[in-house]
Write a structure and sequence with these properties.
212 residues; mainly alpha; 65% helix
Length: 212
């Protein structure tokens, strides 16, 4: 997790001046908000890595398989391939409704339902992929974590290990849920830049496939 966050910060620091040049400096507040958000995640990532290490050492790749390498991030481009989006296509997300549904499924440890809910919101965001890029990233990540959680538990017959794995997955899912507020805030900051056709955020994260 720490490596994933640090790689993300490095990439965003490198791209910060590139976006600034394209947006007459308007993107700087977006880049700084994203980098600060990532800095705040580092300490949580260290805890996650620490508690996950015994399971990883035993051959259970919890957290290692949950996160996609930043090496898979799209190459930098100055403009969206489809051109600038229309402001009419920016839709306010039903954050409270979305979080409530996900919270209920997570609390019930109903991973299949978490995947189903995340899938439905991801599909709605795909109608205009040039907005809400951070929210989509976190929903994709949440979906993958939920899909992998039961797979990890099947890799051991130890009751203690299953409890530990469940604890890590639950903490990770709840963390993603908490991050959605900040993801929405950063997406709103990015909207004016994206309206100019500059693909900030959207090309700065790797696509995250569902668990297979």
């Amino acid at each position: 997790m720490v490596r994933h966050i640090e790689d993300a910060m490095k990439l965003n620091e490198e791209r910060k001046p590139l976006y600034a040049a394209l947006s007459n400096g308007e993107s700087v507040k977006v880049s700084e908000a994203l980098i600060q958000f990532e800095k705040n995640l580092v300490w949580q990532s260290k805890f996650g890595d620490l508690v996950s290490y015994p399971f990883q050492a035993a051959g259970i790749p919890i957290l290692c398989s949950d996160y996609i390498s930043m090496e898979k991030t799209p190459a930098f481009a100055n403009q969206f391939a489809q051109g600038a989006p229309s402001p009419q296509n920016f839709v306010e997300l039903p954050l409270a409704e979305m979080k409530e549904a996900l919270q209920k499924a997570i609390d019930q440890k109903n991973h299949a339902e978490v995947v189903k809910i995340a899938d439905s919101y991801i599909a709605s965001l795909e109608k205009e992929p040039r907005f809400h890029c951070m929210v989509r990233h976190f929903l994709e990540s949440l979906r993958r974590v939920a899909g992998l959680a039961p797979q990890y538990q099947k890799m051991t017959d130890s009751t203690v290990a299953i409890w530990g794995l469940r604890f890590i997955s639950q903490k990770t899912l709840k963390g993603h849920l908490d991050f959605l507020d900040e993801a929405i805030r950063i997406d709103k900051l990015a909207m004016p830049v994206q309206l100019k056709g500059v693909p900030i955020l959207c090309q700065d994260v790797p696509a995250i496939p569902p668990a297979s």
